[in-house]
Structures are given as C-alpha cells and as structure tokens.
C-alpha cells in the first residue's frame, strides 16, 4: 500500500467499514472495522493519518468487509 501511495502522492484514501444490519452493534462494528484498517495503514505502512477518511455503513446486503478507495486530494 505504501508503495502505491508513493506513485499517487496527490491521492487520499477513503476507508469504508461495513457490517450486516443483523449483527450485534452493527454500526459500531462497521466503524471498528474501518478504524482497524486505518490504524494498520498508519502504523504498519506509515500512511499519513491526514490522508485517510474513515466512514462506516450498515448494510442489509450481507456485507462484512472494508473497502479502500483512492480519492483526489483537495
């Protein structure tokens, strides 16, 4: 991941954590998933925290994942 950001220095990251609506504390779980990935990117791959936007969503589509998307820096 760090190498990819070197090639795209003007890009930020949007991290979205998902949880199924039927899971216990789905909103909290989705947010914790996203924050865990953000923490790994910062601590292990030295990604600047200011380049990371963390969001979360509760889904009825059975999503149990975290998405990472590149976005343009403003």
Characterize this entry briefly.
The mean pLDDT is 89. With 74 residues, the protein is an alpha+beta fold.
The strands making up the biggest β-sheet line up spatially as: 2-1-3
Residue share in helix = 25-40%
Q: pLDDT average, as an integer?
A: 89
Please state roughly what percent of the residues sit in beta strands, choosing from under 5%, 5-15%, 15-25%, 25-35%, 35-45% or over 45%.
25-35%
Q: If you consult CATH, what is the topology? A: 60s Ribosomal Protein L30, Chain: A
How would you summarize the topology of this molecule?
Blueprint: H1 2-7, E1 11-20, H2 26-43, E2 52-59, E3 66-72
Describe this structure in words.
It is a single chain. This protein is of the alpha+beta class. It has one domain (2-72): 60s Ribosomal Protein L30, Chain: A (2-Layer Sandwich). It has helices at residues 2-7, 26-43, and strands at 11-20, 52-59, 66-72. β1 (11-20), α2 (26-43) and β2 (52-59) form a beta-alpha-beta unit. It is elongated and about 40 Å long. The mean pLDDT is 89.
Question: What labels would you give this structure?
Answer:
single chain; 74 residues; alpha+beta; 60s Ribosomal Protein L30, Chain: A; 3-stranded mixed β-sheet; 32% helix
């Amino acid at each position: 991941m760090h190498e990819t950001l070197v090639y795209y220095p003007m890009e930020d990251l949007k991290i979205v954590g998902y949880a199924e609506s039927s899971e216990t504390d789905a909103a909290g779980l989705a947010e914790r998933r996203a924050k865990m990935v953000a923490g790994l990117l910062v601590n292990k791959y030295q990604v600047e925290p200011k380049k990371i936007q963390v969001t979360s969503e509760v889904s009825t589509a059975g999503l149990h994942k975290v998405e990472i998307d590149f976005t343009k820096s403003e």
